């Protein structure tokens, strides 16, 4: 699916220390062994709606939602990566095109982390009742 450069994507932090109030850590943007990084389109969503989108992602991996880092499609492309939106589940996409060389991959992670806007939840979320505390 074609993705506009203005589209905003969240990478959900499912482990402690991946996001702070001030920054997103490069480890948040580490691709899996298949060279993919799962993200979700969050353009137009409130903080509560982002939380409600992220909690099922965390639960599917028996983890908690600690927050997220948000980057635009334009920023992802600017660092030399691509977005492949598949909407399975809804709003889902992957960041693709990661370099094979570990140091180059880490450099891309750092670039994305420096561009990302971070949101750290007041406490790890496991249910949507927590979301009402955000807005």
Written description of the protein model:
With 135 residues, this protein is α+β, with helices and mostly antiparallel strands. It has helices at 47-60, 73-78, 102-115, and strands at 8-13, 37-41, 65-72, 82-85, 92-96, 117-125. The protein has a six-stranded antiparallel sheet with strand order 4-5-2-1-3-6. The model has no long low-confidence stretch (mean pLDDT 90).
Largest sheet data? 6 strands, antiparallel
Distance between the termini: 31 Å
Strand tally is: 6
pLDDT under 50 segments (min length 5)? none
Q: Tell me what portion of residues adopts beta-strand conformation.
A: 25-35%
How do the strands of the widest beta sheet line up side by side?
A: 4-5-2-1-3-6
Mean pLDDT: 90
Instruction: Tell me the overall shape.
Output: globular
State Rg.
14 Å
Note the total helix count. 3
Secondary-structure element pattern, one letter each: EEHEHEEHE
Task: Estimate percent helicity.
Answer: 25-40%
**Helix and strand composition category:** alpha+beta
Give the structure's gist in a few sentences.
The protein has 135 residues and is α+β, with helices and mostly antiparallel strands. It has 3 helices and 6 strands, in the order ββαβαββαβ.
Question: What order do the helices and strands come in, and which of them pair?
Answer:
Blueprint: E1 8-13, E2 37-41, H1 47-60, E3 65-72, H2 73-78, E4 82-85, E5 92-96, H3 102-115, E6 117-125
Antiparallel strand pairs: 1-2, 1-3, 2-5, 3-6, 4-5
Q: What labels describe this entry?
A:
alpha+beta; about 140 residues; globular; six-stranded antiparallel sheet
């Amino acid at each position: 699916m074609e993705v506009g450069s203005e589209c905003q994507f969240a990478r959900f932090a499912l482990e402690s220390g991946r996001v702070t109030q001030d920054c997103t850590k490069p480890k948040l943007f580490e691709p899996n062994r298949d060279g993919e990084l799962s993200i979700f389109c969050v353009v137009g969503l409130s903080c509560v709606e982002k939380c409600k989108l992220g909690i099922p992602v965390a639960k599917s991996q028996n983890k908690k939602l600690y927050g997220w880092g948000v980057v635009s499609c334009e920023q992802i492309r600017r660092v030399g990566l691509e977005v492949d939106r598949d909407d399975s589940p809804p709003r889902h996409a992957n960041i693709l095109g990661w370099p094979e060389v570990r140091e180059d991959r880490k450099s891309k992670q750092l670039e994305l982390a420096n561009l990302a806007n971070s949101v750290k939840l007041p406490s790890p979320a496991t249910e949507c009742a927590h979301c009402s505390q955000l807005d």
